[in-house]
C-alpha cells in the first residue's frame, strides 16, 4: 500500500520568492528598507507550487489565508490523538507536500471545529471536498474501504451494499403502520427521510421502530419513501465523490417532488445538512427539520405522553453536523431535559466545543486507514469522556454514532458500563405502550 | 448405453484424486474408458477400476492446445456416449475444447450425473443459491464435474486394464508450455493443522484480518481464506481453501464471514467439525456446517478470543 | 495493439434469486444485474496493458438492461471504444454468446481478447475457449499474470495448491482472466457522468447465428433449507463445542 511510504516525506526545493526592493499596496508604502541587509532576503526558499495548485481549485482558495496562528490545532479532534490540523497542512504544502497524494487528504472528518476558531476563515469544509474530488478524478489512490463504500452507494444507493429492495423491511417490525408513499402515494403532513443506518443497521432499526411508534402516538400523519429512498449523499460529497452525491440527490429530489407533504423530518444530521443546505442548489428546497427540532416543537403534546421513568445518569454527544454546522444545540437538550427522572450532565467538551465521533467526511469508512495515523479512535476518546462524567447512558441523535460508540465501548473495555442510545429510543421507552 | 469416457488429470507426475472420483461415478453409469494423455505406465496401473485405458503419448505437462487436440482423437476412437472431465483449471479447458471441436453439448459445475434415457447433470450455480438440472440429450455429451462430488475410493483400484494407444495429432502449435512455478515455501501448511480459522468476504478489509489472527493464536490454529481474500492479495496463496486452492480436512474449521459458495465448499466440506459465523441467515455455508451462528463476526470473534484466553 | 474485452451482466447475488413461473430459469424482471466481476478483472488487465505500452481497448457487450451504463463505466475506466451488439439474448448460455461475440469481434481484427474466466451462472461452459474456437485462435484460461511482448503474450495459468504454469501464446489469442494484477479500479461517478455526455456507444447487429449447440436447463430450484447446522446463540456455546472437540 503506497500510503505507508508517503506519510512524512516533504521535499525542499529552491524557489524564487525574494523580497522586493520596494512595495506600495493600496497607496501605502510598505517597503522594508529599515530591516534590509546587504541584499534582498529570500523570504521563502520552498517550491510553493503545491500550495498554489491547491489554492487554484474552486472551493479551496481559503487555504491561502492561513497565517499559522495554530488556534485550529488546539481544537482539531484528530490532532488530539494524532498529528494533524489545517495549520500543519498549510506548512507542509509550503514545504512541497502534494496534498492530493498525501495521507493528510483523508484524515479530516470535516467537524468544523477549526473553522469555528480560525481568524482567517480557512475553510476545511470546502477545501477537503475540492481537493478530494480532484484526487479522485486524477486517479490518485483512494483508501480501499472508502472506495468500496463509493461503489456500494453507486450500485445500491446505500453505503453498506445491501439490496435496495430491502430498504423498507425494518418497518415490518415496527408494530405500527409506516406509510410507504412509493407504493401508495397520498398527501401527508410529514415526509420522514429515514436514512441508510436506520434502514439497514440492526441498532438503527431499533431507533427507526422507536421513531415510528413515537410519531404515531403523537398523531403525526407521516409517510416514507420506502425502498425508493437513497442515501442523502452528504458524506460522499465531502469525501470527494461529487458525481455520486449529485446522482443520489437527483434521485431523492425527483422522489420528493412527486409527493405531497408539508414538512420533511430527517433522522440524521448529515441528511439534515444535505437537504437543508445542499439540495436547494440542485433544485430541491424543502421545509426540513432534524427530528429533535420537530419533536421539541411538539413538547406540549409529547411531555404528557412520557409517563414512564428513565432514572439514569445521561450525558449527550453533540453531533457535529447538527451542532457546529447548523447551530442547533438546544433541541436535543429540550427533549432530554423533559425525560422523566433523567439525571443529565454535560461532558466537558460540549455544544460548540463538542468532540467529533470520527464518522463525518467519510470517516465512517476510514477506520482501518486511520488506525495507522492515530493512537486512539475519536469515538474511544469520547466514550472515555462520557464515563469520566459519571454517565451510564450516552445519548446521541446521529445514526452514525450508535454503532461507532457501541464499538468504542467494547474496544475500550467498558462493556456493561455505558449504554449508547439514540434520543428517540429513550423517548420511546418513556411512553406507555 | 455407450461408453463413459473419463479424462484423467495429472499434475507434476501424480494422478489427481478427482480422476478416481470420476471413475467411480462412471462405473455407476456404464462401461468406463479412461483417456490418459501425457501420462505414464505407472499411472495406468492405478486405473484398474476402469475397463480400458486409451493412452496418448504427449508432453508430460498439461497444454490446453495439444491435450485438447489429443482428446479429440481419443473421442474419435472411443465414440463415447458421455465424457466426464474434472471441473478444474485443466479439466474445464478440455471439456470446452472438446465441445467446440465436436459440437457436443456440455454441462459444467456438475455435482451429479444420471443417464436413464437422456443424460442429465445437476449443478449448483450462483454461489450455490440455485440447483440447476440440465438435459444433455441422449449423447454424445460432456459433463465437467466438481471435485468432491463422488467418493474417490470407489474408483481407486490397482490393476492392468486393457491399453489402447492413439496417436497425438499435430496441434496448431500456438500455445507453448514453458515451466511450472511452484508456490513459495509456505510459511504454514494449512493442510496439516488441526484447527483452521477461515475468513471470507465478510472480513471487510485487510486490517480486520487481525481479529481472525488473534482467534487463531488462541486456538493454536492457522488463518486460511476463501478466494476473494487471496485475489485481493491480503493473504498468500498458501492459505487459500477451495477449488483453486487447497483441500483441507481439519478437526475444526471455523468459517468467518464465508458465504459457502460451492467452489469454497469443495476445499473444506470434509472437515470433521465445521462452525460457521455469518450475518446472513440464508448463507449456503449453514447447510454444510455442523454448528452455526447468525451474527456479525466482529461482534463474536473478539469475545470468543477473550473467552479462550 | 488492439485488445477486445467482452463484458457480461450477471445477476447480483445480493438479491434473492427468484425463479420464473415454470421453474426452468431465473425471473429476470426484478433482478438487479451487475458487471461480472471476472470481466471487471479482464478489463483492468486490458487497461494496465494499455498503460504499459501502446494499445487500444475496445469494450463489447450484448444489449440489455443497464448495459449502456456498464459500457460508459468501462470508458471512464480507460477503454477507448465501446460497442453494443443488438438483437441477441444477453442471458443466453456461453455457447450462444460465444457465437454472437465471435461474429462481432472477428470484424475488429483484435490482437488479444481478454474475458473473465467464468461467471456465477455458467452452466454450459466457459466463454474464452468457446469464443477462441469460433475465432480460430489459441486460448488459455484461469490466468492471473499477463505480459505482452511483440506477437506473444506470456501468461500464468493457475492450478490448485498455488501451483502455476507459464505459457507463451502466439497472438492473436483469447485469454480467460482469473484475476488482474491489482484490484479493478473505481470509476468515479463524476467521470462516468462526464463520459455519458460526451461519448457514444457504437452499435452492431448480432446477425445470423446458425446452429448453436444447446444443452437445455430443464429445471432450476432453490436448495433445501434447514440443512445441517445446529444454530448456536452465544459465544459460550461456541466455547463448549470447541472444548468438546478437544481444541480449546
Short description:
By secondary structure, chain A is an alpha/beta fold.
Structure characterization notes:
- The complex is a heterotrimer of chains A (433), B (309) and C (248).
- By secondary structure, chain A is of the alpha/beta class.
- Chain A has three domains: 44-141, Fumarate Reductase Iron-sulfur Protein, Chain B, domain 2; 149-296, Rossmann fold, CATH 3.40.50; 303-430, Rossmann fold (3-Layer(aba) Sandwich).
- Chain A has 21 helices and 13 strands.
- Chain A has helices at residues 3-6, 49-55, 71-75, 77-81, 86-94, 104-107, 113-117, 124-137, 144-156, 196-200, 202-217, 234-238, 242-257, 269-278, 291-296, 299-305, 330-337, 367-370, 378-388, 399-411, 423-430; strands spanning 17-18, 24-25, 28-29, 42-44, 179-180, 188-193, 222-224, 261-266, 288-290, 313-316, 343-344, 393-396, 419-422.
- Chain A is globular, with a radius of gyration of 24 Å.
- Chain A starts with a helix and ends with a helix.
- Chain B has 309 residues and is α/β, with parallel strands linked by helices.
- Chain B is 27% helix and 29% strand.
- In chain B, the strands form three sheets. A nine-stranded mixed sheet of chain B has the order 9-8-7-10-6-1-4-5-11, sandwiched between helices.
- In chain B, helix 3 crosses helix 4 (89-102) and helix 5 packs parallel to helix 9 (297-308).
- With 248 residues, chain C is of the alpha/beta class.
- Chain C starts with a strand and ends with a helix.
- The interface between B and C is large, with 92 and 74 residues.
- Strand 9 of chain B pairs antiparallel with strand 12 (216-221) of chain C, so a sheet runs across the interface.
The gross shape of chain B turns out to be elongated
Average predicted confidence as pLDDT of chain A? 91
Instruction: Sum up the overall morphology of chain A in one term.
Output: globular
Question: So how many helices of chain A?
Answer: 21
Helix content of chain A: 40-55%
Return Rg of chain A in Å. 24 Å
Q: What is the CA-based Rg of chain B, rounded? A: 21 Å
**Which sequence of strands runs across the widest sheet of chain B?**
9-8-7-10-6-1-4-5-11
Strand content of chain B: 25-35%
Task: Give the topology string of chain B: H per helix, E per strand.
Answer: EEEHEHEHEHEEEEEEEHEHEHEHEH
Give the number of helices of chain B.
9
CATH architecture designation of the largest domain in chain B: 3-Layer(aba) Sandwich
Based on secondary structure, the structural category of chain A is alpha/beta
CATH topology term of the largest domain in chain A: Rossmann fold
* Average of pLDDT of chain B: 92
Helix content of chain B: 25-40%
How many strands, which pairing sense, and closed or not: the largest β-sheet of chain A? 5 strands, parallel
